């Protein structure tokens, strides 16, 4: 059993941010909140409909360029965000379970696990991003090293 099993079958809901229903970013918000205790920006004021791809792309691009997210240059890790193009814009996200496997909102259906290292998602892949709180391991400070 994987942590991702707890999020399978959540129905699609445009602008949804709960287990009762989500869009792709909403699913990432739910997973981060429940699994990592990290509250992601919900962007509910940022766009009126998931069909407005340019605005969604701008949100994703703006956030991935912000200090909150860092591009992953090595292998993906669980809970990294995988970003995908739909048409000309990067408007879809999934949460990495392990390299090449993600959980995401499959269209307007429900949350599902899919491979993205091959198949239809492979050619749409735009990059992995890691939340800044998970990007670097903070060194443990020994008591003897505490500042005076």
UniProtKB/TrEMBL annotation:
SUPFAM superfamilies: Cysteine proteinases. InterPro entries: NLP_P60_dom, Papain-like_cys_pep_sf. Residues 1-132 form the NlpC/P60 domain. Keywords: Hydrolase, Protease, Thiol protease. It comes from the Bacteria. Pfam families: NLPC_P60. The keyword Amino-acid biosynthesis does not apply. Belongs to the peptidase C40 family. This is C40 family peptidase.
């Amino acid at each position: 059993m994987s942590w991702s099993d707890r999020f399978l079958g959540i129905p699609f809901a445009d602008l949804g941010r709960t287990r009762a229903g989500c869009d792709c970013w909403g699913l990432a918000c739910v997973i981060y909140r429940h699994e990592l205790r990290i509250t992601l920006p919900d962007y509910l004021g940022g766009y009126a409909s998931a069909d407005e791809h340019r605005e969604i792309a701008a949100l994703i691009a703006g956030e991935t360029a912000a200090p909150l997210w860092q591009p992953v240059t090595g292998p993906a890790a669980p809970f990294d965000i995988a970003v995908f193009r739909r048409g000309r814009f990067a408007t879809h996200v999934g949460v990495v379970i392990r390299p090449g496997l993600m959980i995401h909102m499959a269209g307007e259906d429900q949350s599902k696990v899919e491979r993205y290292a091959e198949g239809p998602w492979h050619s749409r892949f735009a990059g992995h991003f890691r939340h800044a709180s998970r990007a670097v391991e903070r060194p443990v400070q020994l008591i003897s090293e505490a500042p005076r």
